[in-house]
Amino acid sequence: MRGRKRLCRDRRRREPRLPRAKGPGIGHGLERGHLAFTDDPEEALSNSHILFLCVGSPSLPDGSVDLQPLESAARAGAPWLRADHVLVIKTTVPVRTNAWLRQLVGQVTGLGPGQAPRVVSNPEFLRQGTAIRDFLHPDRIVLGGEDDRAVDAVVRIYRPILEQRFPGGDESRPPTLVRTTPEVAEAAKYAANAFLAAKVSFINEMANICDRVGADVAEVAKVMGLDHRIGADFLQAGLGWGGSCFAKDLDALIVAARQLGYEPQLLEAVRDVNERQRQVVIAKLQQHIDLLRAQVTLLGLSFKPGTDDLRGAPAVELARSLRIRGARVTAFDPVVRGIQGMPYVGITEDPYEAADGADALVLVTDWPALRTLDLTQLRSRMRGDLLVDGRNVFHPDEVARAGLVYEGLGRGALGKRRRLTLDWRAPWPAEERSREAADDEQEAVPGRRVS
Prior knowledge:
15 helices, alpha/beta, elongated, Rossmann fold, single chain, 2 domains, 5-stranded mixed sheet, 451 residues, 13 strands
């Protein structure tokens, strides 16, 4: 995209925060005048040929996609749209939206058949927190359109990325260009997110089974990941996926299937398993302490590391469930400083301070800073000694040496643990000595261990 001028139009005039973003070309583009911002649609369209539509696609109450933002963008630009314009849909939208937008644009512009702007579907596959890197180094670029010339025009825009010919590009790993129909491009985006969500829910289902049969799901996942047909990515058992994308796209796909008379049972199960996974942590806490008047500290609040996004974050649902059961909730997160509508969650700027007087800790988000906490120091600040590892990042032996009682998700019976080795010639290490477990149950004392 070197040498091209990019003009970004928003319906509200506001100062962009992009100069502070980390990524090649952004600050440079602003300084050289290659990147500008406006709220004037005439200014944005008059001197442009290719228009990327990057509006939101919020969910309606029934889970379907609200196309109003996309329609508003098309109507706002109608007076200045020309036959040579190419509209590129970056927004995640239902299948057949490309055809719907072509018809809409023809109506609002009054241009006859063959004269209306052409539309190309170009779904984004960007991860929150690494969007710039993912944009510059994608696995694939998908372009769906009925008009070959329009697709060719968009290919030219992407040429530097396709060839990885830019500062920081990796010419040894060029992305795959996929030219296809609009319907395939639109469906592929939903299919990709649904499949990734399914992998997470599957390994969490296995984790719950492993807890009952004495196997370690982390080692099961390693064995699975060695199969090239499966791969190791998204096989990390834990509290489940969060954020807005997986949930929103899965809901939209389920609604679309039902509207077409098909009941997507697998997709529904993927969603149900994910929702249930949060309650697995609550159950593990209740196995050890009475939550009434107990203090539980959540380590990590955002739905994933590298962002402050709380949409669909497991921590929010955990805090709400703990509050309902009478627990006091404290928390630490490197970037989150508050949860809207939940003032009862005491958020500190220091993880050890958050653990002061805690009866239990729950690792919710696997921030790098939380992976390297001094567990012994944490234990010294606590009243209790329970650590529920919601992301399975700690080794149970390390936790035990710090004086903490470890509960993971799917880690099985610790007394039956063997260390996994990937070298078939290496002998299995001796079984670790099993720990005695008390059989008698005593009445729970608020905030104290049930032994």
